Amino acid sequence: MFRGMSDISWSLLPGIFRKYPEKQNSKKITSASYSGNIFSINEYEILSHFRKEASGLLTHISPKDDFTWLQYAQHYGVPTRLLDFTANPLVAMYFCCQSESETDGVVWIINTVTFERWTTSELPCNDRHIAYTREAVINSIMREMRGELDRGEVNSEPHEKKNLPIMFIPPYIDQRMSAQSSRFLLWGNNQSALENMIKADNEMQLCPGVRFDVQGDQRFWAKTIIPARCKHSIMRELDLLNINEKSIFPGLDGIGKYINKYYQNNVDDMLELL
After folding, report:
1. Percent of the chain scored above 70 by pLDDT?
2. Domain ranges of the chain
């Protein structure tokens, strides 16, 4: 799976855990200010707020189904512990090149097979006779997010603290997620950026030639840097492959964005010839 980011300095970190620079609360005499993470301390409150506001529009979701609410919240721009990826490398390249034209971008690449071995390596072995399925691990993360374990609530489901992110394919709740071949990473207790969790021996080398299979291979991630000067030409090439606003964002909104970008690019090309 892949993730394209238009600024190489950005981290692989969900919105709920991102830190923000110090800002003044007001222009009054007080010198009070805030800095750091302003979302994660209110994580479940934020999700509950979204559920209350959206429950009249999403009547098919159970009020107790926090995991589904979390996915809808992520899709509609609420900060969550989810991070978007895609199974389509061209979609990742689009998001890498579609903005921040003065800044180098990056496309992150994750080998999902090896990544699964890495992220499940922290879970207990089956000799404890506990079935740690993906669903059980996700439920455990959600229970921690709600604070149930801190309150000492008893639950018959198996529980083991999950630190590393877990990958899953979400249900496609609209055409946009299908068009973008969406994938998600769900963060556990470790609130670090993904690139800070992984080690040098987890890195794949992107090079042509023969691929060697290594016993117990731990390599699952790589990145390719896209220079700012290449973004415009790459976007034109992606358009020839029908990777554009119209296909990435199905509907009238995407069509409008596509028409605007199409003629903007034509003007840019004309100026380059002058």
Report:
1. 78
2. 2-21+36-204+214-228
